[in-house]
């Protein structure tokens, strides 16, 4: 059972070293049923309180429960998904809008974000990586090398890139096929709806990683999160500890396409799990009219959602990436 939390305030653990260094924030329970990060963050806070860990440089903010309402209810969202459309608003319409009005300025006070999550289906942990350096309009960025170096040292071997660009492309195709009068049921008709915690941090000049620590109930997930916090502190030289070694033989994948559910009777051909491999021509699902949805190339199924509502994401498709992650 989740520990009691106040839904009217965010509880932070804050540490400030006397020597300058990075400003790191670590967040948990952005989705209320993803508590492995919360457990790990509280464990790290106790280590600092006991003296087992000592902050030597920079500043550290630990936010164990980012969405208290969803956490209290033990469900993904309070009123909506906090990790989408994350912007301050002068006229908040729901609970997550009010959280965003506090969270966005808080993120802007930091240089680095480690956002800890978990997922529904069984599977191995993975890291979500941001874009390469660019000056584009969607997600301009200038810290890819630092972000990549940290991604290689969090622990998991699987690293995934391409989230926001793929999401935005999906939005464009969704709008192109949906008449204006039929768009009321679409929750995601603006590419900005794909913006969450890490994208917000990058927009403020920092860098950020999402770590998916394992399945929600996996007893190993809090340990994955705890080790990643320690590794991050060491990599950023905020504690006196050996620099972590990069993971050997990482698996780097790139999201390349999002496929929407078009009808309530669209069905998967089987119970897919994230990162299940598929071969070119393999049947992934079937539309309500009998049309087969088949892989047009070799790749991987990512984030399959059999409960998706018509007009929204059904699954993502990924392929091996050729991006150079560096040393």
- Element-level helix/strand string: EEHEHHEEHEHHEHEEEEEEE
CATH secondary-structure class of the largest domain: Alpha Beta
Strand arrangement across the biggest beta sheet: 1-3-2-4-7-5-6-8-14-13-10
Which whole number gives the mean pLDDT? 92
Low-pLDDT segments: none
**CATH H level, superfamily name of the largest domain:** Zn peptidases
Strand content: 15-25%
What overall geometry do the principal axes of the alpha carbons give?
globular
CATH topology of the largest domain: Aminopeptidase
Structural class category: alpha/beta
Count of DSSP-assigned helices: 7
Tally the structural domains: 2
Report the radius of gyration as a whole number of Å: 20 Å
How would you explain this protein's 3D organization?
With 327 residues, the protein is of the alpha/beta class. It folds into 2 domains: 13-249, 3-Layer(aba) Sandwich (Aminopeptidase), CATH 3.40.630.10; 256-320, Beta Barrel (OB fold (Dihydrolipoamide Acetyltransferase, E2P)). The chain contains 7 helices and 14 strands. The strands form 2 sheets. Strands 1-3-2-4-7-5-6-8-14-13-10 form an 11-stranded mixed β-sheet, sandwiched between helices. Strands 9-11-12 form a 3-stranded antiparallel β-sheet, with no helix packed on it. A hairpin with a 5-residue loop joins strand 11 and strand 12 (292-294). The longest helix has 15 residues, at 36-50. The radius of gyration is 20 Å and the shape is globular. The mean pLDDT is 92.
